[in-house]
């Protein structure tokens, strides 16, 4: 069975810690896939906030997620505080990719890696727009 491959950057622009709550646990007694996407969302919001942005205002427009790729590597249990790292990749005229690495610092295990594609979006008009300069400036230089 072929698995999705997702290469990680050498450097991450932001790091945050998120505890695995009991509501994040599935019937297999580990972090559920839906909860992992919520972890990525929380990390993304914190990353944007650290840059003076929000998902609803990146300089005159909002963001919309158009793709998500997740590669699961290890299980995470209730009570573990996971570290989520975020890196900006492929900043283009309409948006960018964010790449994530989720690790369990207690064991050193990589729990997951992921990528989301975000597009700058004018919700009033219901269509994608060019990235505002404020967004580009806040994200800074994108590393390969």
Note down, in words, how this protein is organized.
The longest helix is centred in the first third of the chain and has 18 residues, at 33-50. This protein has helices spanning 33-50, 133-139; strands spanning 14-19, 62-72, 81-89, 95-104, 109-122, 127-128. It has 2 helices and 6 strands. The protein is elongated. Helix content is 17%, strand content 36%. It has a single domain (14-138), classed as Thiol Ester Dehydrase, Chain A (Roll). It has 144 residues and is an alpha+beta fold. Strands 1, 2, 3, 4, 5 and 6 form a 6-stranded antiparallel β-sheet that branches.
- What is the rounded Rg? 16 Å
Strand content: 35-45%
Q: Indicate the percent of residues in helices.
A: 10-25%
Distance from first to last alpha carbon = 29 Å
Overall body shape: elongated
Number of strands: 6
Could you please say which CATH topology applies here? Answer: Thiol Ester Dehydrase, Chain A
Structural class computed from helices and strand pairing: alpha+beta
What is the CATH-assigned architecture?
Roll
Largest β sheet strand count, sense and barrel closure: 6 strands, antiparallel
Q: What order do the helices and strands follow?
A: EHEEEEEH
The tally of helices reads 2
Unreliable sequence segments: none
Using the coordinates above, name the CATH class.
Alpha Beta
| Overall pLDDT metric | 95
Number of domains: 1
CATH superfamily: Hotdog Thioesterase
């Amino acid at each position: 069975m072929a698995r999705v491959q997702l290469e990680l950057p050498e450097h991450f622009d932001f790091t945050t810690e998120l505890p695995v709550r009991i509501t994040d646990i599935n019937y297999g007694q580990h972090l559920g896939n839906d909860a992992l996407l919520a972890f990525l969302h929380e990390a993304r919001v914190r990353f944007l906030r650290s840059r003076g942005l929000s998902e609803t205002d990146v300089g005159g427009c909002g963001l919309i997620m158009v793709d998500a790729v997740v590669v699961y590597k290890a299980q995470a249990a209730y009570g573990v505080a996971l570290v989520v790292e975020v890196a900006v990749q492929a900043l283009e005229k309409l948006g960018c990719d964010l790449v994530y690495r989720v690790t369990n610092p207690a064991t050193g295990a990589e729990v997951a890696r992921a990528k989301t594609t975000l597009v700058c979006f004018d919700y009033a008009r219901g269509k994608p727009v060019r990235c505002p300069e404020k967004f580009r400036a806040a994200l800074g230089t994108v590393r390969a």
